[in-house]
Every structure is written in structure tokens, then in C-alpha cells.
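Memo to structure team: turn this sequence into C-alpha cells by end of day. - J.P.
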Amino acid sequence: MGIYQTSVEEASSIICPACGQSVAVPQGAIQVSEKNAQPRLNRCLVCPSTELFVRKNFPQRLGIAIVVVGLAMSCVAWGYRDLFWTFGILFSTALLDVILFFVVPDCLTCYRCGARYTGTDGMSEFGNFNLETHEKYRQQAARERQSNRPF
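Reply from structure team:
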């Protein structure tokens, strides 16, 4: 379940609809320029991280499910020795993937907490996913979990 809130640039806090916890919006996290009506995000609103990356705002599990279903259907067609349907299904799955790539909008995602932000300006200032940065935060979270374990 995600938090969907509009006009966060005027808000002083964000309230989680699931648990009711309030998170204060850090000062200077959102910049609104006078010539551009779109807000520009400088850092994550949930955690203190300034490292964000651009990704497609699309559920990965749904994308994998589309590929798996296309592969399974093409295997069935291959089993019936129908070459036309086999490659037709594979190419249709690839075409659907290309269409989704161009239709689905981008979003900013925080490396540390996974929060997603859509409708912000200045996404070009942030790069695509970087495995090294992701691994840094993954290792940091693993060390914190390990240090909090009872002996």
C-alpha cells in the first residue's frame, strides 16, 4: 500500500493512511521555482537520504508475470509444433513490453527506503539505478538488522 498525497510542497507533514504515523517534511526538500509550476524534489521526504534514482512507475511483478505468461504460451504453441504462433506470441509479448516502456511514466525512487515520487520536475538531475549505491544501502540495512538481533 502506498501513500498517495498531492501538493506536498505546501504540507509540513505526511500522514500514513495505514498506521496513522506522521512524518515531517524536511525543510528545503522540495523547491518550487517561480517560472516553473512543477515542484523539484531534492531529497527523500521519508528518510534523510539524498540519493534517488529514476525508474519506471510500473510494478515489477506484473512485468515479470507478462513475460512468464508469454513464454509459457509460446512453449505450448511450440509443443503443438506451430511455429507461426510460437514466434507470434513471443513478438507480441516484446511489442507489449515496448509499448509499456513508452507509455508508463518515470518516477523517482529512494535507494534507502524505497519511497516513490511522481510528478516532480528535475528527474534528469538524478541518474538511473546504480547497483553500487543500492548495495551500499542494502549492506547498511543488513548490518543494522544484525546489530539489533538478541544474542
